[in-house]
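To fix ideas, we give here one paired sequence and structure record:
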Amino acid sequence: MGKYPDGPVTCTEDPSCYVLIKSLKNWAPILVFAFWVYSFLIIVTFLIYRKVYTLQKSPKSVIYKEGLIVNGSRDFDGSKNSPYTNEDIRFDMDNLRDLYAVGYTHTAFGEFCYVLCCLISLHWIALFILIFFDTYNQCEVGSIDNLCFYGNHVIFGSYDFNAMVFFVIWWLAAIWFLGWVINRGRVRNWFRMPCTLSEAHVINVCALEQREVLSVNVLFIIKLFRRIQRRIIPPESRGFSETVSVTKTSQGLHFFLFRGERYLIKGNGIHKASIPFGNTYADIHQCESGLSQEEAEQRFAIIGKNEIPFQPDPLLKTACAELSSLFHVYQLIMYLSWFWNSYLFVASLMAVIVCLSAAVTIYTKHKSQVAIAELTRHVTQVDVYRNENWSKIDSRDVVPGDIVKVSDDWLLPCDLIIIRGSCICDESSLTGEAAPVQKYQAPNNTGTYEPEGHGSRHTLFSGTRVLQAGTHQDHDVLAFVTATGMSTSKGKLLAAILYPEQMVFKYDEELPVVVILLLIYALVCFSIALLFLNLTGSETFWVTRWIYCLAIINQVMSPLLPVALEVGQLQAVERLKKRGIFTLNPSRIAIAGKIRIFCFDKTGTLTKEGLDFVGVQGLERQDATLFGPVKVVSKGVEADTLIIHGLATCHAVSKYGTRYVGNEVEVKMFQAVGWQLIEGFNEPDIVFDGNSEKLKIVKRYEFDHTRATMSVVVQDSQGSFFVYCKGSFEKLEQLCSERSLPKDYLKVAQRHALNGCYVLSLGYRSLDSGLTAEEILEMPRDELEMHLEFVSLILFRNEPKADSPAAIEALKEGEVRAVMVTGDNAQCGHYIARKCSMVAPQVQIFLGDVDAAGSVFWMPMDGQSDDVPEALNTSKFFHQYQKDLACGLVELAITGKAFNILRTSEWMERLIFSVRIFARFRPEDKVSITKMYRDHGIIVGMCGDGGNDCGALRTAHAGIALSEAEASVVSPFTSKDKSILSSVDLLKEGRGALHTSFACYKFLIMYGLMFSVFKLICYWYGVIVCQMSYVFIDGVAVLTLGYAMTTSHPEHVLGKVRPTSSLLGLLNVASVFGVWFINLMFLIGAICFMERQPQYVRWPARYSHGADWWTLGDNWESTVLFFTMYFQFITSAFIFTFGSSFRKSVFYNWIIMVCYGSLMVLMSVLLLLPPNGFTSLWHVASEQFNSANTSSPVWKLYQDAGGSPSPGMSFQFRLQLWLLILGGLATITIWQKMFAEGAVARYLARKFPSMRPKFHI
């Protein structure tokens, strides 16, 4: 047994010691009271003045400017008749978020009151320092049982007076700081005067966040909690709130920045700063003369600098924001009670751990902010045309409407549209596709300009790089600035990273409910503990009893609970990095663990990146109504002239140095004919065969997803004009004259597609020789692409990647439905789906398409029979094959046209889970199907290679882009190895991370439940375990085992089930409460076993002093309670790490095995060893505490009162106790393995399945 402190003597007992404050009537307390009263009167006076000032002002009408969406006015105080500033203005931000804005102005009185509040906060800290100095002044530091437990109380004179002062100050400070933290976004504005927006110095803006709740089947208590939230929290308080400064420009404009966007204030109205330049290409071409300097300055005043105004917060600000969070303030308030109650060293250890954790978080946040800021910091020189002269200016001074020169190897500082020339760009930073992209001059017509739609081929996006501008150094490429700053494509994508859509998982909704339930339980335990402490008969001051009861609340309400639900994801991030998978949003990893449907693009995702040019299939020379054989096209091989000319001209290939760039299909096609390309600047491109034949491409229409065609107008050496058009074979069937098409045109094309070919069709027409070149150039595209003559089919081959079948099979084994969403035809998609095992061999596929009348029809896709089956409309098809659809014997393929028609009725909703192949889908269609899955409550993943998949990748809950970039704004996840096995890895890590997070959550819940009972029993007996025991509970077990639990790796294969996402679900509740109940039974058994021992003497609590807790562990009760509960607690970490089917067995986690094994051995040795110096550190009752000459002050008083000495615990009893404990550990292990995660749990899951949409995998 260690040496207890025997000093210092308190000042009340030491005549030489002068007590500074003997009562509350001393000058120091009176000064503090006076400060409180003064502060209270001043602050209340200001708030009354603020209210009266507001009520006396007559209401003013609110003026809403262009673009403003009004949702009514509301007073900042809630009054409907709010005068002056009751402008609760709501306006739309990119159709995504609603904003509320309230203006405030500064006053000297209000600023003084706010400074006074800051001084109040500091004065609480000063008072605590004063109390702690009084508590520990001249304390002794010796052994583990003498670590600065108490001082001489030089300030307050006695323990009791010090305790009462601490109690009052603790409660006042707790209320003050918690209130400040909860309202920290509003406190500053409480001391500002509400005013009109035009008079405001600052504006409080609240963005109503767009949230998706990923909870379909929720408990009644969650529904009730939602209703309470909606009633208590006003709409304008649900979301992100920020108070921003109002700035005045040199031209008198008032504006504020919110999330990087500039909003202008005029009168009482607000609108987003923008520069309109028209909606059509013609409007843009009318601005080719550029701006004057005066116009540029006016626009600059409106729109501001061309920069993304994101700066990393200073390290001090980041630290203050982190440490002032509710999580850390709650910890601080609780640790203050630990510091005061003689737990100086234990509390210091815990505080250091919390500070180190906070420091890591602060560093990570700051590093992330710096990395994002680096992406935004790009300044370059720009050649701009102003005042009819070219000049170089800083890129930050560019404004929308400027005309700029585009140069080679230029990282674009803004969004532009090309008005002269062409460019080759690298857009991998935005799309993830590494292949260079050709950009063309915008036409001068009345077509609507859509930068991210059809107009993208003319748009140079900010953040991308121009590899080559034009084709000759002596000509300039000119572009028109369309957007700057946060309005650019780069700005919008960065905004999506900085302010992402909030996805609320089931456990996010349930965590507040769990906290409330734990709080209720903790308050019940608090009351029971108070009762038990009063019944022990010990000399314990009431504040000491309150502190002991408060410790129960601290352990039950663990501040680590929110962190526990994230730790698994942080470990998963590092493991995914090692596999080449990167993410900017770790919270999506757990969501990925619940994915039920995974969508895959076809070309470049399921299939190899390159396409092999197979050849062409034209018409028979003898019989033009039949197809000829498939011919390989190469230089020197004889082929039909029309075919050669079509392949040589009907493309959008360009040259980058000596390399041909553009669409890969077109590059392969052009290279096959062996012709050469000569590009001209503002002159038509020319192709020639290397000898004498040259063709001039006088006009080109790029590929259009909507039209599914691209076409060119070609002039030959004789001056004749021809049109060549290529596109999908279905579209060319409509554009070509019927007489030119072979009889079996569609059947042959579909057969090629069903055999895995990527099939295009080529048509041509000869233009009337009477037409002039000018007339031809003015002909609309629709007219040029009509009355075509069929030339040939163009065939490419695109085989699946070697690992695609394995990935799809792995997903199926994991009960995840894989579907294909492609822009290619359904027949080719069908072939790849079969090859990848996406469609089982016995399953029949029916294709839904649209006939000439615009009706959807269904036909089988076997492609083998010569007999054409009867086409069925949707109603007949569904009723005929309903049973086969339900059991998965029939699945569907559907074209984009049919999909959009069926969306207008209920049929798409009924058939959506039977569709395996979505073909001919435009980028916007891919987004639509992803949203449709989400609307059904399905967690959906998307895998693509970027490009036209970007929208769907961002829309899916977990999109993964096969991209070279380590971190891309294209989607939440990127995979550098470009294998769809990455999707399997993501799901495995997602499931493992989710299960890990819940294991840590259950461990902390068990910590609170176990040690609340532990403390209650301790208080019943009037004992408290020694300090070393608490070091091993809070400092060793919680931290080491809590970390070790997170290091388990996911299983190698996906299991048939997904981990639960419900904190209150049957699985988690049974796991926690089952283990808890078994532990309680064995704990009660251990206590009963102890009390039946003939040598046992109950701890004489009536002779103890509760404040001297270090003397309350010298007894049998402390030993039995500590060892029984500690073994049970550390074993809960072990059994919660079993892994189920989501993580590898706990035996593969060497960290937890070492930690758990070491603690088991250590505790066993401590319990079974004979008394020695080592066991005395834990006050093990093998030592005879109640000996004849005991050093224990409590047992000494007991003996002085007539009590007899009693022996220590015998080895036999300790061995039997140890075996009893091991029996309990075996029981909870069996419960967890067999019931909570084993056969019983699986049986109940099958017996009572969750209510969710069901579909065939």
Observations:
- The longest strand covers residues 694-704.
